[in-house]
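User: Could you check the structure of this?
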Amino acid sequence: MKKHSILVAICTLGLVFSCATNPLTGKKTLNFVSNSELFPSSFAEYGTFLKENKVIVGTADARKVESVGTKIKLAAEKYLNSLGQQEYLNGYQWEYKLINDKQINAWCMPGGKIVVYSGILPVTKDDAGLATVMGHEVSHALANHGAQRMSAAQLQGLGAVGVAVATGGKSEETQQTWQQIYGVGSQVGVMLPYGRNHETEADKIGLVLMAIAGYNPEEAISFWGRMAASSNGQAPPEFLSSHPSDATRIANLKAMVPEAKAIAAKFGMIYK
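Assistant: Sure, the predicted structure tokens are below.
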């Protein structure tokens, strides 16, 4: 195959698989992986993680994680039903576990498997703070961000193959130089901004879900302010991170709150 044909094929793949529109974001998404392929492996990995870590059960905090998680799940169902997407959650298996770990973190695997580390609870502070975290993590799963990242990584790998083919007749030093240029450029110029965009999408959807679930979305601003304080200024520059800076995130949230309140009002949730 000619060099330019490989590069054209890579671009074509991106266009072909970007045609699906996510109902929560209204955007076309890059996704090579179906839920039927992704969810079983996700559930298996989650099960392995739980076996290898200390799950907290029977405590007030564990019950809070379960309660808030259930409210966010029900909010997601209401929201998707209102969008005419009743079948969207087929295959999701929601589970919420509190893990004994000092990390200030939480995550949600594709298909609705959620972990909250005990270290984040002093920062969440109350149910609204926890709802902010869980709404954000659930939104990653609903927006299929895991599958999109996998798909983008595949394209990134194909791009590296294209660079290798295009520079195949050059010296080894030249090939290495171009691979380094491609690696840094694709990471800083594409993959990291892609991740930041996902974070912003999850923030936006998460605000809507927490508001529908009965939590004032303005509490999300307070939570992320506490998160910023907990980092002690140790975060990398935004352009070198897969997450927005604290200042960018908080500014975005302030702009998003009115829309979240307006959507929640359609479900009878009124916030001043």
